[in-house]
From TrEMBL:
<dbReference type="InterPro" id="IPR049874">
    <property type="entry name" value="ROK_cs"/>
</dbReference>
<dbReference type="InterPro" id="IPR036390">
    <property type="entry name" value="WH_DNA-bd_sf"/>
</dbReference>
<dbReference type="InterPro" id="IPR000600">
    <property type="entry name" value="ROK"/>
</dbReference>
<keyword id="KW-0119">Carbohydrate metabolism</keyword>
<dbReference type="GO" id="GO:0042732">
    <property type="term" value="P:D-xylose metabolic process"/>
</dbReference>
<keyword id="KW-0859">Xylose metabolism</keyword>
<comment type="function">
    <text>Transcriptional repressor of xylose-utilizing enzymes.</text>
</comment>
<dbReference type="Pfam" id="PF00480">
    <property type="entry name" value="ROK"/>
</dbReference>
<comment type="similarity">
    <text>Belongs to the ROK (NagC/XylR) family.</text>
</comment>
<dbReference type="InterPro" id="IPR043129">
    <property type="entry name" value="ATPase_NBD"/>
</dbReference>
<protein>
    <submittedName>
        <fullName>Xylose repressor XylR</fullName>
    </submittedName>
</protein>
<dbReference type="InterPro" id="IPR036388">
    <property type="entry name" value="WH-like_DNA-bd_sf"/>
</dbReference>
């Protein structure tokens, strides 16, 4: 009894120590064994033995010699980012974008397919084909495809079931189960705005920032909330439906049942609807071209949308007191013509205390925030398992 108890404890300690060594190489590599020992407080013999396990597991590799502090030059260790590959998917209303990334999130391959508001059957078929194609593009690696992350334009519960995707009109879909059954790897499904928030936090404009609100402005508006560098998902995973903030008391009716919702005035849809009414092109890229050419009516339209965008952002700022608000998804392409009006509206409508530190940024990854964040979900799940196996 006593013996097995000891073994249990030792296994646990080894697991914890392996995770410590692994994380220090992952976050601070290249490092030598001596540097890992210094940083972690673990003795050199323990570090050497754990490093050997990680090298055997192909998760860490020796990359040659580093600088010496007098004695023999130490061998440097680096996380093996090509030990496996992740797939990220951004399932849009009229497109699917997919990336294949290594385990540091670098994009190895990227593909995009357009679709026309597919029904459920053809949507799932296209999704499956797209994942198949990305799997076929993956280089040989010890762990192969470690997981799939998918961002979807709808409300997703914590079991990866789409409950409501109004712009796709799909109803309830057990998407995580479906994709896991097909591909036999761990699958994470999340709302595209959450995925986008994660993408910007990890790889984009939100890097190193603790409190970040990501506003995905596409056909609708969604938001992803990062607090203390972690995605805030609410009690059931439904937080961030801020596209339905009421900003006009007697405003237009919304399909959500409310009226005067923010996304009716500040989304890409709102922009195109207004453009149509004014006889301007009803396509975002054409409107951008027309703004570039200096067309006054187009510039005024962008200013008006920007000012509504800023009004909603002001509400969010007053609630969350974030370090940054990042405007992402398709409308981030028009940042040049929105920026000033957004900032003005925010300055006018927020409490002055917030303004000293708060910055408004546009997504670094432009319309790729969600697909990169989706891939990160898959990577993060895999790395979590590595830490627990040791
Ligand atoms: Zn609404």
């Amino acid at each position: 009894m006593v013996k097995s108890q000891q073994t249990g404890d030792q296994t646990m300690i080894k697991k914890i120590n392996t995770a410590i060594v692994f994380d220090s190489v992952l976050k601070n590599g290249p490092l030598s064994r001596a540097q890992i020992s210094e940083r972690s407080g673990l003795n050199k013999a323990t570090v050497s033995s754990l490093v050997l396990d990680l090298i055997d597991a192909k998760l860490v590799e020796e990359i040659g010699q580093g600088e010496s502090n007098g004695g023999r030059k130490p061998v440097m260790l680096l996380f093996n980012a090509q030990a496996g590959y992740a797939i990220g998917i951004d399932l849009g209303v009229n497109y699917i974008r997919g990336v294949l990334t290594d385990l540091l999130g670098h994009v190895i391959e990227e593909r995009e397919w357009s679709m026309k508001r597919p029904d459920l059957t053809s949507g799932l078929k296209q999704l499956t084909e797209c994942i198949d194609k990305l799997i076929a593009l993956a280089p040989e690696s010890p762990y192969g495809i470690v997981g799939i992350g998918i961002g979807v334009p709808g409300i997703v519960d914590d079991k990866g079931t789409i409950l409501f995707a109004p712009n796709l009109e799909w109803g309830r879909v057990d998407l995580q189960q479906y994709v896991e059954d097909k591909f036999r790897v761990p699958v994470t499904i999340d709302n595209e705005a959450n995925a986008g928030a994660q993408g910007e936090q990890k790889y984009g404009a939100g890097r190193g920032i603790a409190h970040q609100i990501y506003v995905s402005v596409g056909i609708g508006i969604g938001t992803g909330i990062i607090l203390h560098k972690e995605l805030y998902k609410g009690a059931s995973g439904f937080s961030g439906e801020l596209g339905h903030l009421s900003i006009e008391y007697n405003g237009k009716p919304c399909r959500c049942g409310n009226q005067g919702c923010w996304e009716l005035y500040a989304s890409e849809n709102a922009l195109l609807e207004q453009a149509g009414k004014q006889g301007l092109p009803e396509e975002l890229d054409e409107l951008i071209a027309s703004a570039e050419a200096g067309d006054e009516r187009t510039l005024a339209l962008f200013r008006s949308i920007g000012s509504y965008l800023g009004a909603g952002i002001a509400n969010i700022v007053n609630v969350f007191n974030p370090d940054v608000v990042i405007i992402g998804n398709r409308m981030s392409k028009a940042s040049r013509w929105l920026e000033e009006a957004v900032q003005e509206a925010v300055d006018m409508r927020t409490l002055s205390y917030h303004r000293e530190r708060m910055r408004i940024l546009f997504a670094d990854l432009q319309d790729r925030s969600a697909v990169r964040g989706a891939a990160y979900y898959a990577i993060n799940t895999f790395l979590g398992k590595v830490r627990n196996v040791g």
